[in-house]
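P.,

For your records, the input lines for the assembly:
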Amino acid sequence: MELFHRTAHELAELLRRKELSAVELCDAVLGRIEAVEPRVRAYVTVMADVAREQAKAVDARRAAGEDLPPLAGIPLAVKDNMCTVDAPTTCSSKVLEHFVAPYDATVVARARQAGCVFTGKTNLDEFAMGSSTENSAFFTTCNPWDLERAPGGSSGGSAAATAAGEAIIALGSDTGGSIRQPASFCSLVGLKPTYGRVSRYGLVAFASSLDQIGPLTKDVRDTALLMNLLAGHDPMDSTSADRPVPDLTELLGRDIRGIRIGVPKEFFAEGTDPEVANAVHAAIRQLESLGAIVGEASTPTVSYGLPTYYIIAPSEASSNLARFDGVRYGHRTSKPVADNVELYEQSRAESFGPEVQRRIMIGTYALSAGYYDAYYLKAQKVRTLLKRDFDKVFEQFDIIAWPTSPCLPFRFGERGDPLSMYMADVCTIPVNMVGIPAVSLPCGFSSGGLPIGIQLGASYFEEPKLLQVAYAYEQSAGFHARRAPLGASCGGEA
Amino acid sequence: MRLSLDEVRHVARLGRLAMTDQQCEAMRDQLDSILAHFEALQELDTDDVEPTSHSLDMANVYRDDEPAPSFDRDRILANAPKRDDECFRVPLIMEED
Amino acid sequence: MALEAIIGLEVHAQLLTRSKMFCRCSTDPSAGPNTVVCPICTAMPGVLPVINRRAVELVVRTGLALNCSIASHSIFARKNYWYPDLPKNYQISQYELPLCRDGYLDIDVNGQKRRIRIRRVHLEEDTGKLYHTAGNESRIDFNRCGVPLMEIVSEPDMRSADEAREYLVALRQVLRYIGVCTGNMEEGSFRCEPNVNVRDTESGAKTGISELKNLNSFRAVHQSVDFEIARHTRLLQRGETVPRQTRRWHPSDESRGGYTDVMRSKEEAHDYRYFPEPDLVPMRIGDDWLSEIRAGMPELPQQKRERFVSQYALTPYDAGVLTQSLEFAQYFEAAVAACRAGQVAEAAKRVSKWLQGEMSRLLNETGQDIADVPARPEHVAELLELVEEGKLTGTIAKEVFEEMFRTGKPAPQIVSERGIEVVGDASELERIVDQVLADHAEVVAKVKSGKTQSKGFLVGQVMKATRGQAVPQIVNDIIDRRLGV
Ligand SMILES: [Mg+2]
Ligand SMILES: [Zn+2]
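Structure tokens returned:
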């Protein structure tokens, strides 16, 4: 298998044994980017020069006999809503097209410190608002498994880059499914950690109470390794959990006999693609065959998750995005304006795309005088009910299992109507609402060869058990070993 | 429920988004269908339910009152669309604005 | 009509922390434009706030001083509005669940005690500063942006401009005493916005509230409130309706007296869209923390006044003057403690007299703060003792005090440097007195014959002979003894 298609833990082993240099690996991935990027279009900015420098530095450190962190020298793609001092941070928005942050996001600083090699900043739905990456203000990213289809979103760029071999691992952010759904669409492993497990400092906020950064990788072990690097308390983020970080690779390979897996029936509602439902059911049976105890679970309020999310997230977003006014950074209208009100209105109208404007409108409305109680407050109360549902489920079960996406990767433009696009998030949203961790991992392919993902969830801070189960399934099912058929012949041979 | 155009205009102004009348109408249609979808929440009885604004049950996260060096001014001003050597610049603000 | 003014005050006080509210930039006000800023206080994309613990403690301390109940559970909220000096375009403030509520402050207005209720005290952050250029632009400096700010909202319990001013004076005094705010109105670290309207107590008719802005002195508060009461009264009496307005105070100048006018109010009514700040977690102030803060509370002005009256036998008036500022009161106590001779009450009386007299005069003249005066309390005590022992006359002592005030030199040093002869030697003084009596036999005769008013002439001659360095009372005593009157 080509270097760029291999996993981080395999490559890390080669690097450690000095059978491969970080520069060689970096060149392989940069070569692959050159070869397939015109078709995949995963990156807003490729950081080739930075990457080479970082790779050189890793090699030098290793040559000097330094004991390096596990992911040193591994090419990592960063979603373009995380701040980096050495490349623009655009959020795939015209607003920030030329913005270079004066600081690194905490996760970026950690990855830099650990010797990761930054391949570039990946495309997303503008300000992470969307489920297909079609809302990028710059261009659309294609699904490496079928270039006519969306890679999912909003971390579509990170998912496509990893699936196409344009990065070995990637960072995504997940507010309502933005890591898991693209992972599912691109046949990757994508983890949304427990809220507070990973620092949000330097992640351009979409919905502060929901946003969480996490890994997009080719297998569970890579997710565990990247999470080991990302997780932990950050004094710069008041919502970051101040509790110990267990080594997530530790439970990988332990058998899962006796682990209780609940299957919430509400998540297999009408509208779930039968091929998806079949694959997920088959995966659950496989888990059962591995010794897990499977039972039916119920989360009655889960059907209210979608409206709840589409009130809370836009409300927080309308406030979070108020700072984009064209005063300190970002787009500023060149039209003559009478005053600052006009300056703001024009600059924002010119530079926010339609989906972002729509969400600002929804959120502003939901918070405005006279509507707060009916919308925002109501949604926050429903959130409590959702949390109760999940708390109850986790009294009975260790893990829950259900589809990541109700549908297969869709064609571009197939979901033009905003509401139908919102529906695509129905299976992922409740997890963000209650803050638990959940992972999506490959569980098969449709008759047409499109990836299908299963979603596993666990209670707060139970990432070790979550990945233990995910790993057990992955190793026995083996879907993670397949690579996107995209031009396997072109580019980047090492 | 149907939003009036004036309501849409008011919300657009609150959110500082310039909109033509045509855009307002299109936005009204979209908001209408989205808000209709929200109506489902009213089915739930939440009278005695506490709101959750955070999934985490955390409290009292503070830092000490210790100043740290600030950022270089040029780095803070670097992305400004309009600036001088010391300050950001905007159209004149009337005192009574 | 029986009209009554209704006045409530909203005060914004900058808290005395070393670093800002949600980032670690310094609160140093002297820095050049945009030099104490960082990504957080300029609202760069992706940044997050972290609460300064000290700021919370200072607000709780204020709440305790103002007899408030302290919330065991309190949260921050976002107040959304657009303004170029507010980089996030929302202010992190408190809405529901403020840190302190339902307190009061007792004030003394023309000898009458009044209790002004405090509705709430909450914590928020300050905005940046706008400067106007010669051209058609404004410049923004974010140095002040994010400095911790405390908002203190009174109930509308004040009934006159005098009461409003007294409340403000007393409030500022408390904040200074407990070390939470410098209280400087001119520099804007203590800002006040009165809400004024007038009610007919018989019919219940009310005018719309005027919210007054641009007040940077006690005088401006007093005058503007007076102006608004008069304006509302006039309009109400004429039967006109007075709308709710935000009004700006224009102080008097040569062309006209002070007046208020309406600030351009935009059509868009304020809709702050408050919601709980999702980037911060709740504050829980448990008993332990509360008692810790309580233990750090200094004596409050009222307690100190009462103690001064009982401990030093001062009049309430004197106690009030001496405790006006914490530094002044501390100076007073240190000086009294340094007095060796006599009873505490007497020493206190002397020190009080000098501090209210010479010290206050010099402080006024020089605009200095007592804390910065080079003369230390023990020096003052030493000087007063010299006077008390009759070694210095009042006139000379004042001169010595003035030099001491400037230089901080102890009195004996000043005396010897200036070559002032301390007339302490009684026999020397008696010799001079005898000489004067001998030189003016005819006056002596008059005095002896009962014309005691002529004695002043003799005292004057002695004073002249000693170049004013003798103590008149002692001279008087010696003459009395010599003449047997
Ligand atoms: Mg305020
Ligand atoms: Zn700062």
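Two observations worth noting. DSSP finds 15 helices and eleven strands in chain A. The first strand of chain A starts at residue 43 and ends at 46.

Regards
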